Amino acid sequence: MTTVDLPVVVGADGSEGSLAAVEWAARQAVRFRLPLRIVHASRWERYEGPDELVPGQVLATAEQRARQRCPDLEVHGVAVPDDAVSALVDQSRQAAALVTGASGRGAVKELLLGSVVLAVAGRSHCPVTVVRGDERNVWGASWPVVVGVGEGGEGIAAVRFALREAAARGCEVQAVRAWRAPQQVVGPLSVLDDTARAFEEQARAVLDEVLGAVQSEYPQVTVRRTVLEGPPHRVLQWPSADAGLLVLGAGGRHGHRGLQLGRVCHTALHRAACPVTVVPHS
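^ Nucleotide-binding universal stress UspA family protein, sequence as received from the core. Prediction below:
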């Protein structure tokens, strides 16, 4: 299977959140001319009680929603007898992209971001999109793609993904770099101004370096460069309010269960006003 043959994979559990993710993933698959694979994972379907949906029902409903959104799309459904995190991470090995909803079914659905989405985003082998935010952002294909620009390979991977996405959507990219002057800096006002200006210029230099490495690959995409003062996990919430997608490098640190997502990704996955894509370095 070549890269262009790899499907868009979306997790489905029967919830409205997952069905919205299925519809979003279907449109994404059409946009990039890829097949769609819908995955339902559960170890407990025999024990969940009469009010729970069985895998066949979950997949049938999800496939129907995908075909209603995109009638000509190639859609396949698969039930996996495993926990959701393990199943989706395994599927990500042979996926062009992985998509999940921001909430699930049952009494603990509000904890899903802690138990499933964060774990999948940290361990996935391909970009992961969490479909969240206002409906106008979720379906606003012409709205800008906002990318938080990190340094080095992580920043380049995220920017390349954002440019590719914007080229497919026909929209612009807003490349954002946050900066902060050290709080311990003290002195006359002129010295403080010079210090702040230096940190702002450093942020602009990072934007220039990272964008310079990949922007020529997508010359048709307009890129708007923005530097914002403040903690990255906070300032990225502002542009997400008028975005169709927020793209971030995975960042974080590696542990025995894979990458532990950093504060920027963690906050965005909980609070962004639009869908969020986390892009692994590799």
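The first helix runs from residue 16 to 31.
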